[in-house]
Amino acid sequence: MTDPPSLRFVVPAGVDDPLRVSGGNVYDRHIRDGLRRRGWDVEVCEAADAGAAASVLRGAPDGSRVLVDGLVAGWAPAAVEEAARRLRLTVLAHMVTASFPDATGAAIEAERRALASAHGLIVTSDWTAAELARRELAEPGRTAVAAPGTVAAEPCPPPADEGQLLCVGVIAPHKGQDTLLAALARLRREEWSCTIAGSSEASPQFAARIARQASALGGRVRLTGVLDDRALDDAYRHCALLIAPSRVESSGMAIADARARGIPVLGAETGGIPDALAAGGGMLVRPDDPAALAAALDAWLSDPALRARLRREALAARATLPTWDDTVTRVADVLEAA
Fold it and tell me: Which residues form the Glycosyl transferase family domain (predicted)?
């Protein structure tokens, strides 16, 4: 009888913390749990900083299989380089640090070193793979795409109020909530309300600006902070349209959640969002453009035929979505070949 495949999975500290909800954490949890259901022996090691990451990597036995979350790898590129000389090391990159407008030179260099030293690289979208290749951060032949899956959900019936808008994601500049609020301030129509759900801890100064912008709209915008699973599901069930106004986005876990429920999406034409909406049921606008976003929102609010078409397309697209089992299969194949 052969031993089960084993894996040391190095993830950011708080991967299971309900107050630290992020797309990366959700993805990591699904991979961990999915591999374990398949009989893998998965040892999860949480790292809060570069020192902790280095300690975890040094403790891995020679020749063992190790998967490192890209965020952690970027904290400790020297430790990743050292570990790659004796471990079967793969990096799981949820994003491209170099694509962020505010990325520092040090962060970009750390990303380059970590990715260059890994034996294999798993990314979460075709756009991420192409962006890494374009920036000469990873060779296409060394990169495998494992797109986020979706959790089966009942389709949401159209809400009575077609003006209920929802935006889900950490409150941070790359998510573009400021663009959304500037667009809402321009709307010609008044029959709308908007819920913005997400942690404000990642970028406190930006979050404070978002709170001021929201307040100026006279109570029509609700900032909820992080929602637990039940509250988030309730938010999806009562929304008519999900808005993804990101400046940078590899794929978008909120988009996947909306797609699973047949909810139309209005997204910025950036990163992996166009691919995520390729099957229909979505609208795309230029990123960082409040006027373009406002025009699309006015069209949604004023055109019943547009709403009906997008909802039909969104419901039909549910059949095309990958499952988390598909994602785990892809990751397992890459790890076994490492």
Answer: 159-314
pTM: 0.92
- Give me the domain span that covers residue 52: 6-149+322-337
Residues 286-306 have pLDDT tens digits of: 999 999 999 999 999 999 999
Q: Same domain, yes or no, for 201 and 277?
A: yes
Contact 177, 167 (CB under 8 A): yes
pLDDT of residue 1: 57
pLDDT at 152: 84
Indicate whether 301 and 326 sit together in one domain: no
Mean pLDDT over 81-95 rounds to 96
Paired tokens of 313: 């397309």
- What's the number of domains the chain is made of? 2
Q: Which long-range contacts (CB under 8 A, 24 or more apart) does 301-306 make?
A: 301/162, 301/163, 301/187, 301/189, 301/191, 301/192, 302/189
Same domain, 273 and 330: no
Residue 241 token pair = 């349209």
Residue 194 φ/ψ region, left for φ over 0, alpha for ψ in the -120 to 50 degree band, beta for the rest:
beta
DSSP letters spanning 257-326 = HHHHTT--EEEESSTTHHHHTTTSSEEEE-TT-HHHHHHHHHHHHH-HHHHHHHHHHHHHHGGGPPBHHH
C-alpha 175, offset from chain centre: 10
Q: Report how far residue 134's alpha carbon sits from residue 138's, in angstroms, rounded to the nearest whole number.
A: 9
> Is the same domain home to 185 and 307?
yes
> What's the CATH code of the domain at 16?
3.40.50.2000
* 168 and 316 part of one domain: yes
3-class secondary-structure state, position 223: strand
Q: Partners of 90 in the beta sheet?
A: 67, 120
Mean pLDDT for 5-28 is 89
How many residues does the structure list for the chain? 338
Going by C-beta distance under 8 Å and a sequence separation of 6 or more, which residues neighbour residue 267? 243, 244, 245, 246, 252, 255, 273, 274, 276, 277, 282, 283, 284, 285
Same domain, 137 and 189: no
Q: How far apart are CA 54 and CA 66, in angstroms?
A: 13
